[in-house]
C-alpha cells in the first residue's frame, strides 16, 4: 500500500510513505524452537525530491534531490530564476534573478509622459505604472534601475498631485519603496546617481498627498496602516496626544503631547508617519551642528529613521513647538559614542551640491543608554540619531586631527632642513646609513604631503582611490626603508658580512616591494575598499587595511628584535662597562632617541590603540608619528656630532678661503702698486717760479 504526501509543513517537501508487512519471529531463550511467530505493519518514509511549487517567481516543477532547476523570466525580463532542491526535499533560496530590460523602464517613462500630457483623470494609468514598478523592483536591481525608478516616482507625484490616487496605487507605491530599500540593494544604491534623501522626499510628498485626499473621510480615532518589509506608514486622525506608530508597537516612536497641540490651537489633527528600518544605510552621513554653517562628516546613522507630519491650516507654524516633540530611538549598535539627535534638512546644500544634510538645529539629546536614546526637537520632519563607530569621541577626534596636521607640517619642514643639511656636507657624511636616511626623509616628506593634501578629498571616487593607493605605497616604503636602516645598524654592530657589504645597493627593493603589495591589493579587490565617504584610506571592515598593517607590524617586530640585539651588544661592550651608571643611562636614552624615529617603533602606539579604549594611546601615536620628521632632524642633524663638525668645518673652511682670497687680493694689489712706473712730475708754473727767482 502506497500513500504519497505532496508537501510538508514548509510547503516544499515531497515524501513517499510505503506500508508493508514484515514477518516477526521470537526465538526461545535456549535457542530451540521459536516460541512465537507473527507479522507487523511497518511504514517507511522516503524523501523522493521537491514537489511542484507556485510562488511569485513562477512555477517550479517536481524535482529530484540535489537537482538545480531554472525557471525562465517573463518576456520583459532577462535572465532566469534558479534554485536547488536540497537533500531534505526542500526548495533552497533563489540564487539567480531576472533583470528588467532597459526598454521596459523606457516604455514606462513614455507612458508617464503620455499620461501627463493627457486631459482627464488617469488614475488607472498611474496605478498600472506603480504596479509595474513594484514588480520590477521585486527582482534584482542595479544602480541604473534605482535612478530610473526614483525618477518615474517623482514624475508620478507631479501627475498625482491633481488626480485621485487609488488604494491600490498607494499599496504599489510603498511596495516599490520597500523593494528599493532592500539591504541587498545597498551597494547598488551607493553607486546610483541618487541617495536616500530622494526616497525621503518622495515619501514625504506622497504622504502629504494622501493626507489631503484621505483625511476628510477619517473619523477621530481612525488610523490606516500599510506595512512592508522596509517601510511602515500610518495615516490617521487623532484628538489629543499624537503617538506614532499608533497601531504597531515599537520602541522607536514620536510623541507629540496634547499640550503642544493645544498651544497651537489644535484639538483634532490628521497625521501621517513613516518608519524606515534600512534607509539609514544609504543616507549621506553629513551633519550640520547647531550654530555652524558648514556640513561636516560625523558618525553613522545608528537608528531607524522615523518621520511625522501634521495636516494643519496654512497659518499654523510647526517650527517652534512647545513643549517639544519627544523621539525615542532603538540603537542599532550600543557601543557607538558621541550621539547627535538630527533631522534631515532639505535647505542645506553640501559641498557635493546635493540637496539636504543632517542637522541638529532645534534638537537636543535628553537621555541615552546602551539600548535607547531619547531626543527632544522643536519641529517635525525625518528624525534619526547619528553616532560615531569609533570609541574615540568627536571632541578627541578633532584634537587628534589638529595634532596630526600641525605635526605633519612641522615634520615636513624639518625633513627639508635635514635633506639640505646632509646635501651641504654630503662628501663628508656619505655612508650606507645616510644614503638610506635620505631615502627615508624623501619618502616621509612625500607621504606627509599626500596625506595632508588628499586624505579628505572624497569628492571624486577615482581621485580618492589614487590618493589612498599612493598613501599606502608611500607609508609602506617608509616602513621598508626603516627596516633597511635597522638591518644596516645590526650589521654594523655584529659585523656579519664585514665592512665591504653595501646595503644601499638593495635600496630599490624598499620601493619595489610596496609597489608590488599595492598592485596586488588593487588587482585582487578591484579598487573596492580604497577610500570611502570620509577618508581616502584603506577600508577596515573588508580587511583591506591588513595589506598595510601586516607588513608594518612585521617591520616593527623585526626592528624591535634588532634594538634588543643592539642594546645587548652595547651592554657587553668594554667602553660601556667602564662608564658610571648615570653616564650609562644617558647613553641608553640617547641611543633610544636616535633609533626610535628611524626604526618606526613609535608606530606600536597605533597598533595597540586599534582595539583599545585608552584614547591616550591615540594621542601618543599622533604626536610621535606626526613629529617623526622633527625627531629625525633633531637627533640626526642638530644633536649629531658628525653633522655639526662637518658644518662647522665647512664654515671655517669657507671663512679661511674668504680670508685667503682677501689676502691674495691685497697682495696682488700691493705687488701691482710696486711694479707700476712713477708718475711724471709736472714742471709747470712751480719750475718757472724757481727760474724767476
Give the mean pLDDT. Answer: 80
End-to-end C-alpha gap: 176 Å
* CATH-level-2 architecture of the largest domain: Up-down Bundle
Please tell me the total number of domains: 3
Q: Structural class from helices and strands?
A: alpha+beta
| CA-based shape | elongated
| Percent of residues in beta strands | 15-25%
| Total DSSP E strands | 23
At the fourth level of CATH, the homologous superfamily of the largest domain is Rhodopsin 7-helix transmembrane proteins
Q: State the helicity in percent bands.
A: 40-55%
Q: Return Rg in Å.
A: 40 Å
CATH structural class of the largest domain: Mainly Alpha
Please give the oligomerization state of what you see: single chain
The biggest sheet amounts to:
10 strands, mixed
CATH fold label of the largest domain: Rhopdopsin 7-helix transmembrane proteins
DSSP summary: helix tally: 20
Low-confidence stretches: 1-20, 291-297, 496-500, 680-693
Q: Could you explain how this protein is built, in words?
A:
With 693 residues, the protein is of the alpha+beta class. The protein folds into three domains: 2-100, no CATH class; 220-389, Chondroitinase Ac, Chain A, domain 3 (Sandwich), CATH 2.60.220.50; 395-644, Rhopdopsin 7-helix transmembrane proteins. The chain has 20 helices and 23 strands. The strands form five sheets. Strands 9, 10, 13, 14, 15, 16, 17, 19, 20 and 23 form a ten-stranded mixed sheet that branches. Strands 11-12-18-22-21 form a five-stranded antiparallel sheet. α1 runs antiparallel to α2, α8 packs parallel to α18 (628-638) and α10 (432-454) packs antiparallel against α11 (461-494). It is elongated.
Amino acid at each position: 500500500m502506497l500513500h504519497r504526501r505532496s508537501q510538508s509543513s514548509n510547503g516544499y517537501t515531497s515524501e513517499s510513505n510505503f506500508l508493508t508487512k514484515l514477518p516477526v519471529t521470537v526465538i526461545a531463550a535456549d535457542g530451540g524452537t521459536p516460541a512465537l511467530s507473527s507479522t507487523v505493519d511497518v511504514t517507511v518514509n522516503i524523501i523522493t525530491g521537491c514537489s511542484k511549487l507556485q510562488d511569485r517567481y513562477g512555477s517550479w516543477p517536481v524535482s529530484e534531490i540535489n537537482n538545480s532547476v531554472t525557471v525562465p523570466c517573463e518576456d520583459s525580463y532577462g535572465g532566469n530564476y534558479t534554485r536547488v532542491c536540497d537533500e531534505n526535499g526542500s526548495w533552497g533560496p533563489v540564487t539567480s534573478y531576472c533583470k528588467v530590460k532597459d526598454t521596459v523602464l523606457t516604455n514606462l517613462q513614455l507612458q508617464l509622459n503620455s499620461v501627463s500630457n493627457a486631459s482627464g483623470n488617469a488614475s488607472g494609468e498611474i496605478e498600472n505604472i506603480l504596479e509595474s514598478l513594484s514588480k520590477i523592483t521585486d527582482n534584482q536591481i542595479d544602480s541604473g534601475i534605482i535612478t530610473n525608478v526614483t525618477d518615474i516616482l517623482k514624475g508620478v507625484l507631479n501627475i498625482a498631485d491633481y488626480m485621485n490616487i487609488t488604494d491600490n496605487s498607494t499599496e504599489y507605491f510603498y511596495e516599490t519603496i520597500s523593494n528599493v530599500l532592500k539591504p541587498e540593494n545597498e551597494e547598488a544604491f551607493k553607486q546610483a546617481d541618487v541617495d536616500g534623501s530622494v526616497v525621503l522626499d518622495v515619501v514625504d510628498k506622497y504622504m502629504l498627498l494622501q493626507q489631503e485626499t484621505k483625511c476628510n473621510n477619517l473619523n477621530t480615532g481612525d488610523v490606516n496602516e500599510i506595512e512592508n518589509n522596509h517601510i511602515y506608514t500610518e495615516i490617521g486622525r487623532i484628538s489629543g496626544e499624537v503617538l506614532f506608530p499608533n497601531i504597531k508597537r515599537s520602541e522607536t516612536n514620536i510623541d507629540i503631547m496634547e499640550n503642544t497641540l493645544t498651544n497651537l490651537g489644535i484639538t483634532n489633527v490628521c497625521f501621517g508617519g513613516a518608519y524606515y528600518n534600512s534607509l539609514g544605510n544609504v543616507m549621506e552621513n553629513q551633519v550640520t551642528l547647531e550654530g555652524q554653517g558648514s556640513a561636516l562628516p560625523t558618525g553613522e546613522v545608528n537608528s531607524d529613521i522615523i518621520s511625522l507630519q501634521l495636516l494643519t491650516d496654512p497659518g499654523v507654524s510647526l517650527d517652534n513647538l512647545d513643549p517639544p516633540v519627544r523621539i525615542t530611538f532603538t540603537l542599532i549598535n550600543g557601543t557607538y559614542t558621541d550621539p547627535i539627535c538630527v533631522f534631515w534638512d532639505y535647505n542645506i546644500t553640501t559641498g557635493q551640491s546635493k540637496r539636504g544634510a543632517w542637522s541638529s538645529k532645534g534638537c537636543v539629546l535628553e537621555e541615552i543608554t546602551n539600548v535607547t536614546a531619547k531626543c527632544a526637537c522643536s519641529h517635525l520632519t525625518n528624525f534619526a540619531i547619528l553616532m560615531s563607530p569609533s570609541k574615540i569621541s568627536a571632541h578627541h577626534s578633532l584634537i587628534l586631527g589638529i595634532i596630526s596636521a600641525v605635526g605633519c607640517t612641522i615634520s615636513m619642514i624639518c625633513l627639508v632642513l635635514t635633506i639640505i643639511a646632509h646635501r651641504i656636507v654630503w662628501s663628508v657624511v656619505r655612508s650606507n646609513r645616510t644614503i638610506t636616511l635620505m631615502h627615508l626623509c624623501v619618502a616621509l616628506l612625500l607621504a606627509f604631503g599626500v596625506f595632508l593634501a588628499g586624505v579628505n578629498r572624497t569628492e571624486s571616487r577615482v581621485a580618492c582611490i589614487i590618493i589612498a593607493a599612493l598613501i599606502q605605497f608611500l607609508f609602506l616604503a617608509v616602513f621598508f626603508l626603516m627596516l633597511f636602516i635597522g638591518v644596516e645598524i645590526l650589521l654594523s654592530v655584529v659585523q656579519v658580512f664585514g665592512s665591504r657589504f653595501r646595503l644601499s645597493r638593495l635600496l630599490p627593493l624598499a620601493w619595489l616591494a610596496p609597489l608590488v603589495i599595492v598592485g596586488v591589493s588593487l588587482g585582487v579587490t578591484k579598487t573596492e575598499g580604497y577610500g570611502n565617504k570620509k577618508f581616502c584610506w584603506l577600508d577596515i571592515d573588508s580587511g583591506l587595511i591588513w595589506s598595510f598593517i601586516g607588513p608594518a607590524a612585521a617591520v616593527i617586530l623585526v626592528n624591535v628584535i634588532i634594538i634588543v640585539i643592539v642594546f645587548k651588544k652595547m651592554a657587553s661592550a668594554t667602553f660601556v662597562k667602564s662608564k658610571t651608571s648615570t653616564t650609562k643611562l644617558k647613553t641608553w636614552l640617547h641611543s633610544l632617541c636616535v633609533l626610535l624615529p628611524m626604526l618606526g617603533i613609535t608606530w606600536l602606539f597605533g597598533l595597540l590603540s586599534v582595539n583599545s579604549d585608552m584614547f591616550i594611546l591615540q594621542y601618543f601615536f599622533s604626536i610621535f608619528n606626526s613629529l617623526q620628521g622633527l625627531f629625525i632632524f633633531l637627533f640626526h642633524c642638530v644633536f649629531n656630532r658628525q653633522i655639526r663638525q662637518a658644518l662647522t668645518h665647512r664654515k671655517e673652511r669657507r671663512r679661511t678661503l674668504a680670508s685667503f682670497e682677501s689676502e691674495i687680493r691685497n697682495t696682488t694689489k700691493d705687488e701691482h702698486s710696486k711694479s707700476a712706473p712713477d708718475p711724471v712730475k709736472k714742471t709747470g708754473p712751480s719750475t718757472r717760479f724757481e727760474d724767476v727767482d
